Amino acid sequence: MLSICREFDQVILRDFFHDECRSHMGSPLYATPGKFFVKPPLAGMVIYKDEFVDVHYMQSSPLQAAAAFQAGVETGITINGTDSLVFFTDTPGVEYQVYPVHTGDESDPRLGPPSRGQSASGDHLFLEGGRQGMHLLHGSSPTSMIVCLSSRSRSEVTQHFSLQSGKLVGCTATSVTDSRLQIIATALSYLRGSDNTGALLDMSRHPTTFVRWNALRSLYRVDPAAASERLKEMRENDVNEEIRKLATRSLEQG
């Protein structure tokens, strides 16, 4: 992953962004295959993608970082379900905290005490999928990073935690395809349609655990009777032990 990040030197990045600018200027309807994203204090885009890795270019300006650290503003951290390597470039110096995720059989995941680090251009940091996340600290210098993410997930879910409480506040699917199915399942629970029950039942048999359970929750809003019958099946036959326990608990609670 480090060698991949090092391939994207300043010349390659400059040529890439120049090509993007020319394409946008030449065609108002041009849509880049590399998707842009903004998640304050970071902004960036996907600069490379294949069946093994996604490579992102990300940047944070001092003003963006300062705005993200205003007193009283709730901030959070995302723990990706895939391994990632952060390679710092054009960075005089940046401080960050690495948060571990503590999990237990009887309790929800929560953030552990962070370890503090400092990096500059040429340094790198590896983050284990589902176990570690990095939080940039407010500084006076701009920060640029190339981030390489593995396409193979360690965890089916990407977890979102509150930095204030350390508690888990939400989950999304790690896979882009699974994440879209999650959105579709949620949308079907609010849209009218005679085929919604069948579609959600089909999704509740998806191989990804997170998709199955999210579809079941949406099915309950649309057709509680069908959801109850599907819960009984999941209690007895689901391949995932956690899903079987959740189904049992849900049926006991009515």
UniProtKB/TrEMBL annotation:
Residues 102-122 are annotated as: Disordered. Gene3D superfamilies: Leucine-rich Repeat Variant. This is HEAT repeat domain-containing protein.
